[in-house]
Amino acid sequence: MLKPYIKNIMTVRSITVFFISIVMSNNIFCAHNEIYSDYKGLLSILKVQPENISIKDKQLPIFSEYVASNLVFINRAQDLVADKGLLAAINSIGKNAVLCTSYFGAIETSQDKVGSGLNVNGVVLMSGLAQKYKILTVGAFVECGNGDYGIIDNFETLSSIKNNGDKDYIGGGLLCHLDFFDKFYLDCSGRKGLLKTNLYSFDLISSSIFKDKYCNLDYFSSHAGIGCKLNIYKNLGLDIFSKYFFTHQDGKKDVTIYTGEILNFSGLNSQRLLCGLRFFQPTNTIFSFYGGLSAEYEFLGDVKAFFEDKNIPAKNLKGYTETIEIGVSGKSNSCIGELSLQSYLGMREGYAGTLKVSFVFFDYLERFLGYSLKKFENEKNGRFNNDFSFSKKDCFLKILGIIKELKGRVTHKSLKKGYIVAFDFSKTFQDSCLDSTEVCIYVQDLKNGGTNVEVVSNNNLLSEELSKKLFQMLNKDK
To answer: Do 152 and 224 sit in the same domain of this protein?
Structure first.
């Protein structure tokens, strides 16, 4: 019978002690505000002196691991630009476009294990605009990313240390792609930005090892590639490619850590060669699949750092990495989306998932300005034409008058280029279209005299009915 009462008394006592502890701790913090503003004072209150938690010689590799993780993260972003980002820019415009501006973007999440236990995770993103001039596609983009890394270093005579850190970067760059002989291509890119990182080791101290918490590093990278696309079967193509990558990450001098000691690390260079092949299906279907294999070799990647003028054991990133990838893409009239998965084996192990989206971002603006007729040029079914004996100018003016009679509105026109784009035909053709449905009427000279008139719309029913009415009214004016 006494057990419930004893239990209640113990519970009340525990709660009371808990609140008293909170009050006392608040008083202590208030009484030591000045002490807590001084870092050494804080360590003295915690009875932890810098000399008692200083970095031992055999624990120095945590810094080379940190520098190596920065390079791995920047290279992941470079891979996105040189592969999925570049393909997104090309696909956003299409082969048939001559002068068109488009938007493209790609985002990738990855998890890499490099060497003996270095894990680098992150999300990288790029977004930009592309322009095509005949066989040349150029683009400008901005990029950003966020990631982290972690590793557990095991030492012979000392306890293991777990160290990790966060990474953020922002930058921008240019890319270009050149097609020639219908099957060969060249591509290249260049990018520059700023990487912001920090380093934690809660086994040593429960805050950033760097006194300034963050370390800012500039980076630059570029790539050049060559490839060939072949049709090896009716519904199967093969893309054979090779790419060279160069990355430079700036070093940093006189980095003060929490013990007051100084860390220096030199600039870091990376040179990689990638060779691979990718099987793909034609993109004229709504959905298509692809898969590929590639091999990459890192030639440099030596990490050099110095701690209080002591050489830190170098971290080496040299070696082979094999990649297997599969993906699926979906296509609509003006948008392409793609989802892919990559798996890595070798020096770099892990996986990555990529999503890319591209579409004609300024198509409506270009049509408003009067020089993009892409949506009508690609139309195959909704096209009807007829020949007339009028001159081009007379026919052009007569068509403008007929559009007005049919209560349509002209958005833009060009007598020199020979086209008229109009909409708002729903008042005349109520069951065939919406108010916003557009029609393009091409007016072109014939070699033997006269004019050819062609009515084109993505709405087949509207183009058929409008062409019948238009041709009938033009024939009355003969």
So the answer is: yes
